[in-house]
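Board notes (copied after class):
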Amino acid sequence: MTTDLKTAQEMMAAAVAARAAEDPEIVSVKRLLKLLDKTAKSNRTYGSTNPVAQKFTQQLFEELTRHLAVHSRLAFLVQRSELLCKDSVVYQAEKEGGSESIAFKLYADGIRELVLHQGLTQEDLSFFLVSLWSDVDTNEDDDDIVTRLWSRNLSTITLVTAEELSKFSAGNDGFIRIDGSMSSSDSTLRELLDRERERKKRGGTGTDSEGGGSGNAKSRFQSGLAGYEVTEEELAVLAQEIEAERKQDNLMYILDMLTAILASEKSSVLLTKLFSLWSNVVESLLREGKWTVLENVLSLLHETDAVRPDLGEEHKQQLASLLNGLGRVERVKMIEVYLNRNPNADVKGLSTILSLMKTDAVSSLCSLLANVTSPVHQAIVSEALAVLAKDHPDPLLRGLSDRRPGYVRNLLSILIKWNNLKFAEPVEKLIRYPDAQVRREVIRALGLFRPNGNGTKLLSLSTDEDEGVRFAALKLLMSGQYTVPFSLWSPLLSEEGLMDRPTSERRAVFHAVRATCGDEAVPYWQRLMTEWAWMNRRKKEELAVIGAETLGKLASPAAIAALSIGAQKGSAAVRQACAAALSQAQRLQRGGPSTDTGTTH
């Protein structure tokens, strides 16, 4: 019988050990005790009203509530340097942890089991934390955890003391052992004690007068282990819980732990290591494109001075180096590699990360802008550069000579946003840039930087090979804000290619001439209307008609005189055009409405 009992005990112990190895409740308890540890430290260090301490307390309450909703209680046995639950060590103090260890603190105050029950309120939890780490300098004689908890008589927190165990063991021939089979039972130590007391009251554990004390002997050999079976449904639930634990966000859990250390750690050596570790965290998040997480980390680090005003000069310098080094070349390169490898990646938070960089990152960001391939990514980097480089534009101006047109267009867009006249000269150098879209952006920029004055640079673009570039330049010249000597227009007006251009473009050229030269160009149009042509007669007649329209909108005395001559000596089509232009010029002189969208010179 003894052999069978021993075998059963061994089998049950093996089953329990196997269950604990993958028991999600054990995993949950370990996580909760770690969180309790850092919450207690933050409360002890900064007080329960500190925002950091309140944040940890709230997180602990939420995690504890979820645990109690599933498992109904959080119970563990207390030893000098560790806490146990179901034969598993769920908390172990660091070496030389001393009085900062939760296990040691509970053990030193005489607690051998602590149980938090379902229904625990946030007020109960706060009181427990205050009781756990009260003012060590208090003069109260009963300033221990047991007294404080018993004074409140909370139904959601129960405990067993060493004194209770000592008294009960003495009356039961050493039956109760704190490090033995009690931890293997599904019942708490408090429940077992209460049950034994009840049995003793009923005479169940007293000395049997007829059995010669065999009742005590019998109870001494009972294992205290309760057998159980696991159904398929329970196994399925356990599997789901294990899978949920596997999918938890380990990164956020690690960051929470590092935050707790940052808020409470006193050791100078450990703080130095911590800041080095934060640097690795920043680089890892950059490399993996976790922008929103990195944003939270940097926000936390920016608030370190407020949370830890006691930091020494060495650690302040470490912190400053960490924050100021965000835009280092190799770190910006990590962003580039990630974005090009993941063109459709989520970019939420990236703008904030770039805006937190210092001005020494402008050159690196220019390289990033040049190398990222996605227009969405380029727009984000351009936006950051528009803010960061406003007072440090030299890297952008040097980039205008780059042979990548997309990059140059982005740089021009930034310069246009700044709208600073000092950028006109470096932009003018791009009027012969190989890419037509760049040349159009150059015209747009010059229209802002030099909205009036000498239009010679724009005139050079009126012969551009790209029709869009030519029209963009002519549109600015037609505004009436620029001047160009007629002698510079002559090569364009006299070339045979002008007659082959679309009618709309020839008309635009003539109006640009009118707006920049005025009466200086009247002899040219008069000659067009009156000379007899043997070659290209029809095309020259079309030019003469457009010239008559242009003189009608010029409406100066010289223009009217030229139209009067054309109305007498031109061809039939020209005479008809001159008559209509004279009528328009007369209306303009009398102040009547004009159909011209340009401005007379």
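Comment from the instructor: Residues 24-46 form the longest helix (23 residues). The longest strand covers residues 111-117.
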